[in-house]
Amino acid sequence: MTLLSKDERYDEDSRGLLADLLMNQHKMLATAESCTGGLIAAACTGLAGSSRWFERGFVSYSNASKTELLGVDAALIDTHGAVSEPVARAMARGAVARSAAQVSVAVTGIAGPDGGSADKPVGTVWFGFLVDGQLTSELRVFPGDRAAVRGATVRHALGRLAALLAASPDRV
Fold it and tell me: Residue 35 in contact with residue 125, Cβ under 8 Å?
């Protein structure tokens, strides 16, 4: 039995590459997820042996949990909204700061079907990545229904994180 719909499934190649890169670089990963509700962590831990490279996952769906679990300043959320670059970046920093991981990916977005606006339509997702002490962020707007947005978010998170690690100066 699979818990993920066809649209929510991750890219096996990216997941395997990510695992290899993290193990070869002796790094651990932490995830900080809002709109995906733990799907990135589930994709990672679905791989046998993931305990060698996956440290923990934070599901911070509510604004209060972003502050309590990850240390996101409530003023950032009040000023920019939960779905914003500053919040994604703060989530990525918080995941590393509050774990034994050296690498993190954070996602905050609007999966739908409700919650979108003219400025932030359904499908809007901000990503934060912390690799080698370098914090980067990206905005993507994915088409489709809730399952498609969440699935695309997981695939992009895994693929982009693998690309960042592959370009890492620590690559062995």
Answer: yes
